[in-house]
Amino acid sequence: MIAELGFGILVIAFAVAVYSAAAAIYGGLRNQPAWAESARYGMLLTWPLITLAALSLISLLLTGHYEVEYVYNVTSNSMPTYLKITALWGGQSGSLVFWSWLMSAFASAVTLRKWDRDREFLPWVIAVSSITLAFFLGLIIFSQNPFVRIWVTPSGQQLLSMVQPAGASLAVVADGLGLNPLLRHPGMIFHPPMLYLGFVSFVIPYAFAIAALVTGRTDDRWIRITRRWTLVAWLFLSIGLFLGMRWAYDVLGWGGFWGWDAVEVAALMPWLAGTAFVHSVMIQEKRGMMKRWNMVLIILTYDLVIYGTFLTRSGVLSSVHAFAQSSIGPVFFAFIGITFGISLGLLLYRWPELKSEMQMTSVLSREALFLLNNLLFMALLVVCFWGVNFPLLSELFTGQKVTVGPPFYTSATGPLWAGLLLLMGVAPLSAWGRSTVKTLGKAIWKPFAASLVVLAAVIAAGTREVSALIGFWLVSYVILVTLYEYLRGAWARHRRAGENLLLALWRLIGRNRRRYGGYFIHLGVVLAALGVIGMQFFQTNTQGSIPVGSSLQLDGYTITYRSLAIFDTPDGRNVARAVVDVYKNGAFLAELYPRRDYYYASQQPMTIPGVRSSLGGDIYVDLVDWQPITTEGATFKIYHNPLINWLWIGGLTFVLGALIAAWPDGEKAPAPSEAPAKEAALPGKA
Amino acid sequence: MENALPGQTKTFRTGGRWKFIVGGLVILAAVAYLIISSTQANAQYFLTIDELKSRGPALLNKDVRISGAVVGDTIQYDPKTLTLSFTVANVPADNSVIDKEGGLAAVLHAAVVNPKTTRMKVVVVGQPKPDLLRNEAQAIMTGQLGNDGVFRASELLLKCPTKYQDVVPNQVKAQ
Predict the structure, then answer these.
(1) A415 and B2 in contact by Cβ < 8 A?
(2) At residue A316, does pLDDT exceed 70?
(3) Percent of chain A at pLDDT above 90?
(4) Contact present, A590 and A596 (Cβ < 8 Å)
(5) Could you please report the per-residue DSSP string of A228-279?
(6) Would you call A356 an interface residue with chain B, using a CB distance cutoff of 8 Å?
(7) Which of A147, A303, A492, A595 would staple A577 via disulfide (CB 3.0–4.6 Å)?
(8) Tens digits of per-residue pLDDT, A92-120?
């Protein structure tokens, strides 16, 4: 009953979305506001509809209706309530419902804004969001229906169907398989929604970009309207990526956080395009340049979002063999192809109107460095795209499937990341319009000199690996430049207004949230880079089977095996849990509990490491195997992960910076005719 | 609308332009070099077990990537030496073939059940036993085929089993 209800509502929502798209396009083409208004009401109606459908699915999940195939696959009786609810995005079809729900929520929020002077955008924004929404709803209804049930025919045959097959009756299922144990982790509970929020909110700036192209209102209005949307989208996407790394680190028991797996790369690609976009819109706002480029970037971001959703949720993932194997593959590629083609067509049509208002004059100017930043992000994107699609390309041209693994990505992206770090240390000090080696040198030499001192200290401490030294130097240089920028700004206020330094710093950030929030983000990135450098160049590991009371050594740490307990838990696990002590140079540091959980229902073991964290790094202990009765004891694999926690600290700093930059302004937004003048009066460089 | 900063000119500067073009070309060349050299250094053939066996001699002791279905009964793990060994059965790589045979789950199952499929012994050293290693899992391995016909893998990826568990549970009964 609830299954039929949920499915029926989805069908209605799909029809409404299709109607909205059609009415919006008709209203926009014929210039009939009544049709656009009708489309807007349609758009607003989809949200409550999809909410109801999602609630139907949640209620099925909560009440254990295991005859529904999706419920059977992702929940079981022993799962706690919150996991049953979050199982909404625990599988493919449910997560598409969740995606659509977020999409309609965001699209509705946009249609509720005050449109006053931007009324000509309205129909096209609705059209783009409705088409995107309709695509996903269509996908759910026609191919990925979470409400499909299991039926049994009189001859005992089992069938999957939405409607009752003739003569068949509904299956009775006592318990479900339960959510994959690997996904029962806080990082995994919040990681998909964050990623999806990021994906979905990037649709909004894209919709405005298309609206600008269609209506020919090609000034920077669309960028100003969507500035905050873009930042928020980018923030969510970034949080999603960080949570994914944390999950991989905590749960997969392999001592790493990023494996350049096709899924990860798929989620990274829209982030790369989006990050380039976040930077280059600033040049358009300030200098009226890069208009065509910004269009290209947002179109790319949108289609990479669709591509990313497809790759992460279609089950074609880790196997390069099975690239387009899922039945939804061709549909996705067709949608991406069509939207990409139409968007580019519109862009070419408006090409002459999107001419730059200014020429770039100086290679060291702020805008030129922004351009360089964009080129580097695009290069990263090309590397990722190349890596993911290389098996397909090579088969196409040579008939042989050839793959590239993580080492390809590391060696191809390493220098590009380093280049971006260097830019973070140069661009903030360069001036808009014109900058020479002399003016730039004058601004840079102090932090540069200080960073050389840090470099000398790192060498003195015994580091000899050249790539690592370059990395450490870049990190210290960017941190120093960024702090120098804060200090200089605060000092100027202090001198001018007589505020004390802290207050000056506070007000400085408050008045230029976007800029100083941005620097905060840069700080987060370099701190995270510190963690990556530590893992990349200094991670060590050891392993061994030892009896109780014996120890393993690693980098001056001693890990002693104390005891082992094996027990069953009420939620259907068999747990083997070891107790180990960690000593550093003889001094006791911590007691750790690496364990192995075996989930009876899904017959899946799960390795949970014991981790001792400090700012210097983690000692990460996996329980590999055990012989409880013999004296052989247990086998451990131990990793020493230097500096890893700076990755998480960097992530938090990053998020904080993005919040500062995206925080709504207290005062009313200035009319756009005044805004550029006001901002131009604040030259980029203090 | 955009205000020019003092000293800003809108005039065309030939001197500035070629600097940008040269700079752009240098970056393009550098990126192309990065991609090409990294690809050359890290490219691996991706083969089925059948293909590897038939082309065996040419690829002996060269890094390749293979995929196959794990035969559950053959999984052995020696925790003392962290040595894992198991046998994989050939699965087709062609998507249309996989689709025709009822999807990946069915193909993996058929490969393990049918004793006639080509099989190969795989040895992995130095890793904990992966949580996802089980009967009829899809294993994707990077490594080398030795003269003894054993594939020594340095990397082992297993496809998440929830994706292809039996669609219809055994415990189902008619009402």
Answers:
(1) no
(2) no
(3) 50
(4) no
(5) HHHHHHHHHHHHHHHHHHHHHHHHS-SS-S----HHHHHHHHHHHHHHHHHH
(6) no
(7) A595
(8) 789 889 999 999 999 999 888 878 788 88
Give the Cβ contact number of residue A532 at 10 Å: 20
CA distance A417 to A240: 20
The residues in A 576-595 lying below 8 A from B, measured between CB atoms, are none
Which helix (DSSP H) or strand (DSSP E) does residue A402 occupy?
strand A402-404
Q: Do A319 and B155 touch (CB under 8 A)?
A: no
Quote ipTM for the complex. Answer: 0.78
What distances in angstroms separate CA A232 from CA A194, A662, A672, one per listed residue?
11, 7, 21
Measured between alpha carbons, how far is A405 from A386 in angstroms, rounded to an integer? Answer: 12
Task: Supply the pLDDT for residue B166.
Answer: 38
**Alpha helix locations (H) across A539-636?**
none
Residue that has been written with the tokens 């196997």 in this structure: A319
Find out whether B161 and A315 touch, Cβ atoms under 8 Å: no
- Scored b (16 or more CB within 10 A) or e, A435-468 reads beeebbeebbeebbebbeebbeebeeeebeeeeb
Say whether A315 and B163 touch across the interface (CB within 8 A): yes
Domains and their CATH numbers in chain B: 45-160 (2.40.50.140)
Q: Does pLDDT of A676 surpass 50?
A: no
Show residues of chain A in contact with B93, CB under 8 Å: 321, 401
Number of H-type helices and E-type strands within chain A: 20, 14
- Bin A151: left if φ > 0, else alpha if -120 < ψ < 50, else beta: beta
Q: Which residue has 């309609």 as its token pair?
A: A104
Could you tell me how far CA A340 lies from the centroid of its own chain? 22
CA B113 remoteness from chain centre: 24
Helices A122-142 + A33-62 axis angle, to 10: 30
Q: Note whether A50 and A13 are within 8 A (CB).
A: yes
Comparing A135-139, A375-379, A544-548, the range with the smallest average pLDDT is A544-548
Give the model's pLDDT for residue A98: 94
Pairing of strands B64-78, B43-48: parallel
> From A323, which residue of chain B is nearest by alpha-carbon distance?
B95
| CA neighbor of A296 nearest in space, from A246, A251, A354 | A354
Three-state SS at B64: strand
Single out the residue of B90, B94, B157, B65 nearest to residue A403, CA to CA. Answer: B65
Question: Beta partners for B155?
Answer: B142
Residue B79, CA distances (Å) to A605, A625, A633, A682, B53 in order: 16, 6, 10, 65, 30
Q: Which residues of A touch B129 (CB under 8 A)?
A: 624-625
Each residue of A583-621: pLDDT tens digit? 998 899 999 999 998 888 777 788 889 999 999 999 999
Say whether pLDDT at A672 is over 50.
no
The partner residues of B174 in beta bridges, in order of sequence, read: A171
Which of A622, A624, A598, A596 is closest to A610 using CA atoms? A622
Say if B58 is an interface residue toward chain A (CB within 8 Å). Answer: no
Sheet hosting strand B173-174, strand order edge to edge? A158-161, A149-152, A169-172, B173-174
Judged against a pLDDT cut of 60, whether residue A326 lies above it is answered with: no
Nearest to A91 by CA among A71, A105, A76, A77: A71
Please give the pLDDT value at position B169. 40
Structural contact between residues A640 and A554, judged by C-beta atoms closer than 8 angstroms: yes
Is residue A319's pLDDT more than 70?
no
Mean pLDDT over the full length of chain A: 87
Chain A residues near residue B45 by CB distance under 8 angstroms: 400-402
A358 near B CB under 8 A: yes
